[in-house]
Amino acid sequence: MRLMYVATPVLAALLATAVASGASQENRHKRWVKEYTGTETCLKCHEEEAEAFFHSQHYQWRGETPAMVNSDGQKLGKLTMINDFCTNPGGAQWIGKVTNDDGKVLAKGCSTCHAGLGLLPAETPSRVQLENIDCLICHANGYRRDLYATEDGEWEWRPILWKNQEGMNSVARRITVPTRTMCLRCHSASGGGPNYKRGDIEYTLKEPDRSFDVHMAANGKDMWCVDCHAGDAHRVKGRGVDLAATDSPGHDLSCSGSCHGETPHDVPALDNHTERVYCTTCHIPVFAKDEPTDMRRDWSTITWSEEKGKYTYDVTLEQNVEPVYAWYNGSSYNQIPGQPVRRNTDGAVTMVTPDGDRADPAARIYAFKLHRGVLPVLKGKDWIMPVATEELYHHGDPDRAVRDAAKSFYGLDQVDYEWTDTVRYMGLFHEIPPAEDALQCLDCHSPDGRMDWQALGYDGDPLATRRTAASKDSGR
Amino acid sequence: MKTSTTIALACLASFVILCLAVPAPSSAALDGQELYKEYCKGCHASGSPNGEYTPLDLIQDQWTRFFDRKYERTHKDVLDASHGNRPVIEVIGPEELQAIRDFAVEHASDSENPMTCG
What we know:
Chain A is α+β, with helices and mostly antiparallel strands. In chain A, 26% of the residues lie in helices and 17% in strands. In chain A, a hairpin with a 4-residue loop joins β10 and β11 (383-384). Chain B has a domain at 31-106: Cytochrome Bc1 Complex, Chain D, domain 2. Chain B has helices spanning 2-21, 32-44, 60-75, 88-91, 94-106; strands at 79-80, 86-87. Chain B is globular.
């Protein structure tokens, strides 16, 4: 499917063999990578790509924020924000082993999902920073890494094959453009467990059936993540709704875009909707189809799990969840640390809300996962606060975890805080089932339908309203 | 209606059993991980002079090569003190060895696994 856009069949055939062989065994990098000694091996020929990658959001964990209504032009991202999953990856959270009293490893740090080998990203490139990039996490089949202590007492991510040079060389030669599996290494188990965070990016997408995902199934279009997401110079397209930064500003990714257009149906009754109802609203009837997803996480309620040998947050996992629906114009409000919190009518802090309403011509109704949480808020200042989650798994004291994080994140020694409910809207874009599973007219246009018409700014079901009006007309 | 569901379920059940049973009747019943612990770990734990080996220390090709070409040669003269001081290759039966091999290859360091935190 990567060949979809390739013009000449000859080139297509060539590429097909390259991709096919790359997926299973060593490929042409066999000639180029004689002995893998770390990222420096790749830098010999790919310094330019490494520099480009250095500036990407995947490395910086912050970037430009043109789609955030309240960012005021700041560069923001995972490193600077606080979320309602693992809160913030800075300070002691970044890297290091947390073990329980039996020596069992409970956590290794948030850099588990950073495409680097352990150093925090710097703002300007240097040799040390370029060598810190982990190219293999996105480009080598069969690559796995783990956390090791260095001689000078620091921590670093290393290929688990570091002592097995022959095996290491073999893996470092299996270079391809990123497969689905490679992207899923980080994206399918983010937030602390399988499918916990996103809900619509499950490890099943490694090799899904068409009934699960028409785009990525081998018996569907067999698309890879990069078919939709690859941009220029190591910047990916598609921010979704709840991430702060936009890695490829000005290069939007949408279903309509270059693939489907605005009127993909033969049925006018359906095409009439697309101006105001986004494709995902009808085409993602449920999410978390194989693995339950985290719908609510409460950091104030900590319990001991005998099974896991650690203290854990209170979590509500749900499967086959129906999305919620809201207007979205491509921009969002994200709660920024160090600014007074904004609350909705229920009093919950709005971590992320999509921007737009019915009166906004650029807005459409989208499908969302609505994640709820419980986080601390600093009294007086009204700032949202992080939690030192990694150590909490060991000591089990949420108060201590809040104080530790307040010190490392805000530099505060004394804090007076209270727990608060939070909500986050997260866009759903993946795991599109076959068209016959799409929502039908009555899923929305019926008294117990999915749309909360009033909340969306309608007097009631517009179809029913029209019908009533029509029957009144004919009655007169 | 009810009977046909029952029949369908019965078919499904037998299909599942057959599916599991046909390809590897013996090794499916054996737990490769447990056998690895029992028959290999004792001599290859961390710090062992015989070399440290967990499945994660080798790639799939290396495990295959080991079992195909090296295992017999390197373990025929090694006596296993925890199993009656007999040569390793006599202690471990062919079916058990197959289960250990499947386990090692399946969990080799180039097997894929998503990463996660806490």
